[in-house]
Amino acid sequence: MKRRPTITDVAAAAGVSVATVSKAVNGRYGVAPETVDRVLQVVADLGYESSLIASSMRSRTTGVIGVLVADFEPFSAEVLKGVGQALSDSRYDLLAYSGTRSTAEGWERRSLSRLSGTLIDGAIMVTPTVVNVNADVPVVAIDPHTGPADLPTVECDSFGGALQATRSLIDLGHTRIGFIAGRPDLRSSIARDAGYRRALTDAGLPVDPALVGSGSYRQDAVRMAALEMLRRSDRPTAVFAANDLSALEIVRVASELGLEVPRDLSVIGFDDVPEASKAIPALSTVRQPMQVLGAEAARMLLDLMDGITPTVTHVKLPTRLVLRETTAPPA
Amino acid sequence: MKRRPTITDVAAAAGVSVATVSKAVNGRYGVAPETVDRVLQVVADLGYESSLIASSMRSRTTGVIGVLVADFEPFSAEVLKGVGQALSDSRYDLLAYSGTRSTAEGWERRSLSRLSGTLIDGAIMVTPTVVNVNADVPVVAIDPHTGPADLPTVECDSFGGALQATRSLIDLGHTRIGFIAGRPDLRSSIARDAGYRRALTDAGLPVDPALVGSGSYRQDAVRMAALEMLRRSDRPTAVFAANDLSALEIVRVASELGLEVPRDLSVIGFDDVPEASKAIPALSTVRQPMQVLGAEAARMLLDLMDGITPTVTHVKLPTRLVLRETTAPPA
DNA sequence: TTGAAAGCGCTAACAG
DNA sequence: CTGTTAGCGCTTTCAA
């Protein structure tokens, strides 16, 4: 907890000006070799490291890529791993930022604004609520907001995944199938909702509004919706949830209500976060390649930053149904 | 990609000085209510957000906590989730930083130096190689470097875990048990090594240097060590690896060599990262509570930043053996 | 109640 | 080859 040495300290100790230190440290032309040596020696002695912040204020470029997330939950964590891997042999540092303080709508707008222009050379936004941002750096969105996307985006086939999940429930013999929706502002959530409805309709089953709850990916909202749905006398025998964390919460609620999964209730989630397969019983779900999502976004961003106009600006990756222990025919 | 508005833009548009804008935005005393209103209106219109970087250069405090990792691999990702959860209802933003560019020793020294003093109010370093850092903010280390730690630390019982893992192999009937070591600069790696040796010694088994490889947690090094070890005529019938990623690599190498796991070779890892249970065959491992590690560190850091001297500065959490599909009696 | 001015640590002209 | 100077966007005295 000693005070960090600044460029001024180094300059003083080396008996040169701060400008010379800057040049020496950054390997700029026009410094005598012996001066460089002396400066670097002092740098080593003092353990000096240039402040990323101060440098970035002047030099418009920092070699840092930012990943903006609402929260460090399992989904973002997986995406982050993918981005990290894709960037591991690039020359960029990686900075992940979550504005804990502003769960409010528009967090990414704020975060991006605060970091861009100085700290980061490019950004990846994960499940942004707002798509129309003003940054002075290239931005790629993963699983973006609904509405016109002027941003390059990477997402997965939510409609197809939801269709498949719901169909599998139907194939098992379920006819009363509930749905807990996700964040209504995300394009992917809407697609999952649509996939669910389509599967029912295709099978000639009615869509009962009483079996559609709004969870918004928030634990408390999911709990409330699940409680209401499962307490009904005509409760569903299966529920499809728009993401795994919601599905896991439903399983919890079911068990509190004395319902056994999957005997009394089948549950399918979406994402296949690590927590899904670790749960007891292991959660059936729709796997989306989260790490690939991140890696793909990183690749696009890298191109963008190199001034390359990407040929594909909207990537959609396939999903796959993974049936585990929370699905069974109705009792 | 419009240019981000700065405080100067706001000032101009509102017809006041930048100083006034600053005061209005930050709710300082001494600004006429109507001026405040006008300024905030312009702020909203322009979509202005103060630059985190510029602010942090002047105001010694930012409300941001930094987590410094070498890489966004599974272990750090889990830790990050824990930190995020612990901080979710604090007033702090969370910033995770990985210096991709400097895999070199001392990355955390550099990262910390570059971020602290300006950008972050406190830091958590994950598996730092260097423990003697000069930051001007409080720092907590997770799974730290060996050597005298003047830093508060959080880690798990690596010795006990390794002991248990190796013993379980012995109990299965194995007598030739290999070990692929981790990063020799980490205290936890050394403890795992020691636990392995102790288990063998306790059982009256010799420690064969030919069965101890150095992996350093790096895939290529692990591969080489595993290859060498498994090609021997007197190859081990079981291997304990200092972390899961190493163990997974060993399984891969074994299969390339035509050895079937666990029939021809038992493997146990350490950590229980999500990838371990998803692997085929599912990896037997020593579970360490990675998220709790992160949460615990966050709690300590919060105290430190509040000026509270923590009563316990070195937390050690228990581990638990999780036997899955990569362990069996020797053929 | 407001604004002018200094300065955080650093880089980039430009002089010397 | 080196130092002086001028900011980057912001906050904070201190006068007006």
UniProtKB/TrEMBL annotation, chains A, B:
SMART domains: HTH_LACI. It holds the Pfam family LacI. One of its GO terms (molecular function) is DNA binding. Keywords: DNA-binding, Transcription, Transcription regulation. The keyword Repeat does not apply. Residues 5-59 form the HTH lacI-type domain. InterPro entries: HTH_LacI (IPR000843), LacI/GalR-like_sensor (IPR046335), Lambda_DNA-bd_dom_sf (IPR010982), Peripla_BP_I (IPR028082). It comes from the Bacteria. This is LacI family DNA-binding transcriptional regulator.
